[in-house]
Amino acid sequence: MDPCPFVRLTVGNLALKIPVASKPARSVVHPSSSPCFCKIKLKNFPLQSSVVPFIPPESQCPDSQVQPIAATFHLSKSDIDKLVGKSIFAGKLCLKISIYTGRRGTTCGVNSGRLLGKISVPLDLAGTENKATVFHNGWVTVGKEAKGSSAQFHVNVKAEPDPRFVFQFDGEPECSPQVFQIQGNIRQPVFSCKFSFRNTGDRNQRSRSLQSESGSSRSWLSSFGSERERPGKERKGWSITVHDLSGSPVAVASMVTPFVASPGSDRVSRSNPGSWLILRPGDGTWKPWGRLEAWRERGGSDGLGYRFELIPDTSGGMSAAGIVLAESTLSSSRGGKFTIDLGAASSNGRATPGRSTSPVCSPRSSGDFGYGLWPFCMYRGFVMSASVEGEGKCSKPRVEVSVPHVNCSEDAAAFVALAAAVDLSMDACRLFSQRLRKELCQQQDTLG
Length: 448
Prior knowledge:
About 10% of the residues lie in helices and about 40% in strands. By secondary structure, it is mostly beta strands. The protein folds into two domains: about 5-160, Immunoglobulin-like (Sandwich), CATH 2.60.40; about 165-445, no CATH class. The chain has a twelve-stranded antiparallel sheet, with helices on both faces. Residues about 20-30, about 200-220, about 225-230, about 345-375 and about 445-448 have low confidence and may be disordered.
């Protein structure tokens, strides 16, 4: 089947330059002491914000490596159809950017920033599913012009085709559902999932695909996690195997570190997260592809914290540290999207709920643009996203994977297994004072 058309609208290369006033005045923005930020709004999409770096007044262009992408909007075919729909009551579609001086945030419920100016960039999205389009790239005057003291704002706005394969679980992962590929109104089954329990005391409970694994892959499981019995409250041994239409296993998500309640509490803490290993078949055995850690955040967010890292293939004898591709938080009540997008980092380097923060293939979100520093890095731009429902809600994850990252069914299956692990982590990280559904408690009830 053909992939679904998507468009990636990006806002980047932000910069602000302000002529230095000959006489200091309260009304003049002084770049050395006044931070700036902007809010970026596209109709019907959530507001996004970004820091705006200052550059010297004599500079002609900002350094594109400083902040290549400040905001990203992912548009499906239906999104584009709605945005470009003709209406006598609708005005021309525009991307609106408001530039503020001062730090982001609120004080006593009042926004702390002071509005410097607004700009609108007209958008014509027709045909952007097939060709890249630059809507604006350059400087624009913002604020009040007063004797050469007007500010100049630089921005690049462009749309690029970003086709994706779309998969939909036909049920909750713990119910061993089928997985369909979606293309328009067509639904075609491509995978099936088998949820099971893996326990050191009862190997017969393990899924059939893992029973046949060689000793080397078992050593991978033990080296990346712990299956030892732990005192106190814990959830352990969950496993989900993805099969292709012939029934052959093509990916596995295996819980390798139990989700354990911190001493004196009912929650899985960030300091002691549970973890999953995502495995792919290779050379007659299972090979680790990625590792997902999850925990329950404290404080007002009270969300699902997660970190996903790619594990390099060391079969050639080389050793390399894992690369963190996504690290963020999902709302426990509302859910959200688990996303790996290596071009949509928040400009302040901090995690934004529901978004990945590692802009490039560099360890621990360091932000260096060294694509060649890690020889195993193949992932750039948008990689994948998976929908996750909040606690207590029926979850049938929808998975989107960028076309360049799928060369075979095993590639797609690995992302489907990862999506299942993220979804199951929402249950694994529920407070231990709350009961799980029976499909997730079968093992505990059997042993009890």
